[in-house]
Design brief:
About 65% of the residues lie in helices and about 5% in strands. With about 170 residues, it is mainly α. It has one domain. The protein has a two-stranded antiparallel ribbon.
Length: about 170
């Protein structure tokens, strides 16, 4: 998620910044909107800030989770943080994939539109977000498997035959 945070932050800064009060760079030129001066619309800026805030929130949760794991004691809070990371990663992947689909339709609809590096950053962010989602799911499944009732031994004793059976999976 650190890579996603860096890429999306860089891309957001690249979209919002004003180049010499006249020229805007990146996808803000095509704007995926067919409209002139669409960079002035608040909906575009809200969408960009959404990606930035989601990435920042994910980075903060991952950092907190790593700090707790450095204590070498897995606690219930780690599972909660992982579940939050899954939800945020899923939200990020869904929003980014929607953005990419809209971008591809716009670029295919206009013959003079071209891919630029900021679009490829969102493609890379989508791939990294998908990998992070899969890794978070694997960590949660691993945590649940390690802390489930099957991983602890259960001993049954019977007073009738003075024997015990130990079951462990």
């Amino acid at each position: 998620m650190t890579c996603i945070t860096i890429f999306v932050s860089l891309n957001t800064h690249y979209w919002i910044r004003n180049m010499g009060e006249m020229e805007y760079r990146g996808l803000i030129v095509s704007c995926y909107d067919y409209g002139h001066h669409c960079h002035e619309r608040p909906s575009i800026r809200r969408a960009l800030w959404f990606f930035y805030i989601v990435s920042l929130l994910t980075f903060t949760l991952e950092l907190l989770n790593i700090c707790l794991l450095c204590k070498r004691i897995r606690s219930r809070i780690n599972l909660v943080l992982e579940e939050l990371a899954i939800i945020i990663s899923l939200l990020f992947v869904l929003c980014t994939s929607g953005f990419l689909i809209i971008g591809l339709f716009v670029i295919m609809a206009k013959s003079y539109e071209q891919f630029d590096w900021s679009f490829f950053i969102f493609v890379l962010s989508f791939i990294l977000g998908l990998l992070d989602l899969v890794c978070s799911l694997v960590r949660v499944v691993s945590y649940c498997r390690d802390n489930s009732f099957r991983s602890t031994s259960i001993t049954y004793t019977s007073k009738d035959n003075h024997g015990s059976v130990r079951i462990q999976s």
